[in-house]
Structures are given as structure tokens and as C-alpha cells.
Amino acid sequence: MASIHQKYQEAIRLYAETDLSAVQIAKACNVEVAGFRAYLGRHHRDLLLKRYGMEGMECSVKLRSKRGQRPDAHLKYKEAVEACDNLSYIRLSISEIARMFGVTATGLGNFLRLHYPDVLERREKAKLRLGIAD
């Protein structure tokens, strides 16, 4: 029986060298889509991040784990999340920060609650410490 690395070798080559989707590659290489995606995420995370233009962010992005974020969502909210965690923006509400960065307030709030609850907690503590009311 071939090793898992040999099983996906051709699929990985196609993923790295073409713009084909994971579904198209899995079909062309006769492997299961879910298995190929799992293998990519586990063993070739760098290729996933490169495809989404997120090279160098290996540590800061959770990709599609149970509560992971999609790469496009990470990019969409990245600057707004950083602003929410920055004291320079502490006087602004989440809604105001969302508008500044061109995202919806509901979307940013949900994204923060799901992926960065610690940012909301730090923000709340800082506001209390500084005597800033919402």
C-alpha cells in the first residue's frame, strides 16, 4: 500500500502549479475531495496560504478547523480586528470601526465573538479602566 504522501503527490503538484480547485484536482487524481483537503491543511498549509495570498501568516490563521476561519474571511476582517485590539481605537464602537474598514458591524461582531473573543474581553477591560462608556 502506498504511503499517504505518495497517494497525494500528484494532487499536491497540481495544487502548487495550477489554479485548479481542490475538487477538480481530486477528481483528476482519483482521490477523495475531503481527504485531499484534509491532507493539504495538515501537511501543506503553506500552499493553502500562498493560494489565498496569505504567505507569512502561518501562525495567525486557523483554517477550516472546527471553528476555524476561511482565508477570505480572515483577510476581510484582519485590519478591523487589529483596530479593535488597538488602544488608538478604544473610543470607537465596534460599529464605527466596522464602517471605517468597510465591513458590516454585525459581521465584525460575529467574527470577533467566534474567532477572537479575547479581543472583546481586552477591549471591555480597557474601556472600564479608562472610564469610557459605550
From TrEMBL:
This is Glutamine synthetase. It comes from Candidatus Paraprevotella stercoravium.
